[in-house]
């Protein structure tokens, strides 16, 4: 089953791939041989892993068939597997588990992160980036539209509206298992162009599971309400640009020897 549109997602490829580059910049492994990219999407994060380690065995994991098809048709050399990260376990212990912009789609982070750490060999690394902007208008507007429309019952359980914990929570449950734990946040200020570009951005990500559950008139009205509220919250500036502040949480955990 697919709800993602790789072409729409890649419209902001530069903005979306930059956190991967910055996350990878803090991974101090010299020559990891087994690397897993969880939620590899169309392969844009896998590409930067491949560029850094041309000889590694890299596996891209994703549960969306369209995203994975796009990854497979790219020139990135990797094994591609269609698996839900929640049900996934590696064939062999990992030197590096990398995940950019994916784990916020899964719940119960204490259990999930500890499980992923257990798949990494001693001195290996779990490196994760997740958005932590769920109290920003881009997301509170989705919640408001979901909860106040005739679709409320159908959409309410789609996902947790605030799935990412505080940085100190991740420190709390990971620090006992790590030799080194690097946690930081960055707020990007994306400079976007065009009409209602924040709607364009989230229609390729945060809105996907909602839009895939609606059809016909309901879907149209849902989109119109989101568009209307988003264009009021993120105004076009006199120079034609729209600023989209976007906070992200980065975690690089090196497993104890
Ligand atoms: C925002 S994209 C990230 C793509 C890429 N890693 C990047 O850096 O741009 C999130 C990806 O996570 C995948 N995903 C979401 N939940 C997943 C799950 N439970 N198991 C596997 N993949 C999942 C989606 O299909 C999507 O391709």
Task: Give your account of this protein's structure.
The chain is of the alpha/beta class. It has a single domain (6-255), classed as 3-Layer(aba) Sandwich (Rossmann fold). Helix content is 37%, strand content 25%. It is built from 11 helices and 7 strands. It has a 7-stranded mixed beta sheet. Helix 2 (13-24) packs parallel to helix 3 (44-52). The N and C termini lie far apart (40 Å).
Order of helices and strands: HHEHEHEEHEHHHEHHHE
Low-confidence stretches: none
| The top level CATH class name | Alpha Beta
How far apart are the termini? 40 Å
The neighbouring-strand order within the major sheet is 3-2-1-4-5-7-6
What is this entry, summarized?
The chain has eleven helices and seven strands. It has helices at 6-9, 13-24, 44-52, 65-72, 109-118, 137-148, 152-155, 167-174, 197-203, 208-211, 216-233; strands spanning 34-38, 57-62, 79-82, 94-100, 120-131, 178-192, 242-255.
How does the SSE layout of this entry go?
Layout: H1 6-9, H2 13-24, E1 34-38, H3 44-52, E2 57-62, H4 65-72, E3 79-82, E4 94-100, H5 109-118, E5 120-131, H6 137-148, H7 152-155, H8 167-174, E6 178-192, H9 197-203, H10 208-211, H11 216-233, E7 242-255
Parallel strand pairs: 1-2, 1-4, 2-3, 4-5
Antiparallel strand pairs: 5-7, 6-7
Helix pairs in contact: 2-3, 6-11
The site of S-adenosylmethionine (SAM) has 22 residues, from α2 and α3.
């Amino acid at each position: 089953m697919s709800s993602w549109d790789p072409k729409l997602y890649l419209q902001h490829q530069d903005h979306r791939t930059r956190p991967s580059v910055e996350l990878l910049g803090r991974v101090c492994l010299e020559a990891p041989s087994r690397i897993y990219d969880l939620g590899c999407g169309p392969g844009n994060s896998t590409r930067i892993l491949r560029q850094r380690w041309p000889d590694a065995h890299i596996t891209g994991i994703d549960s969306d068939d369209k995203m994975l098809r796009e990854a497979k048709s790219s020139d990135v050399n990797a094994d591609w597997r269609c698996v839900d990260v929640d049900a996934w376990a590696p064939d062999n212990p990992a030197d590096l588990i990398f995940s950019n912009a994916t784990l916020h789609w899964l719940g119960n982070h204490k259990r999930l992160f500890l499980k992923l750490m257990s798949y990494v060999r001693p001195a290996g690394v779990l490196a994760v980036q997740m958005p932590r902007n769920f109290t920003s208008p881009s997301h509170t507007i989705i919640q408001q539209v979901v909860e106040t429309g005739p679709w409320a019952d159908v959409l309410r359980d789609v996902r947790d509206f605030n799935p990412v914990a505080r940085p100190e929570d991740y420190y709390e449950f990971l620090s006992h298992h790590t030799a080194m734990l690097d946690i930081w946040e960055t707020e990007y200020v994306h400079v976007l162009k065009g009409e209602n570009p924040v709607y364009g951005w989230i229609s390729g990500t945060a809105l996907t599971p909602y839009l895939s559950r609606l059809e016909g008139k309901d879907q149209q009205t849902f989109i119109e309400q989101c568009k209307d509220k988003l264009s009021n919250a993120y105004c076009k500036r006199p120079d034609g640009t729209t600023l989209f502040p976007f906070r992200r949480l980065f975690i690089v955990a090196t497993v104890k020897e």
